Structure prediction request, 167 residues.
Amino acid sequence: MKLIEYGPVRTTLGSFLVAATKKGVVRVALPGERRERFLADLKRQSPGARIVPGRGAVAGAGRALAASLQGKKTSVSLDVAGTAFQRSVWRALQRIPFGRTATYGEVAKRVGRSRAARAVGMACNRNPVPILVPCHRVVGSHGSLGGYGGGIALKRRLLAGESRASR
Prediction:
């Protein structure tokens, strides 16, 4: 039986919920996401798993999350499920440098699907580990921020913080 530990991670941007297995991070909930929704998502994505509050697997994930928010390179393992296309998008997002952005269309080209900008947006929306897979770095073709699961205000704060820190 798969064991998933979860717990809070406090950062300068607020309190995140993080879930991880021994293999890697499974889910990150942005500040403001309700614990009930977070747990329901975990149960849906890992049916039959034992989901418990814990510190072991969560501690490493928390350090990686905090480091990512500060622009430090992290080598955190992920234990996420998705379609082949989603996983290719998520890998492409991890290659967007700290403090930089890419458009949905640019990401689509990077994954070999130049006409799939909307599908890239949906893959960003389905990203179970925001910040660690930085979907906030993807913007619209004319510089619009597009959407963000944590809200546009948080996306704006993340991008502004990264821009300041990368100078």
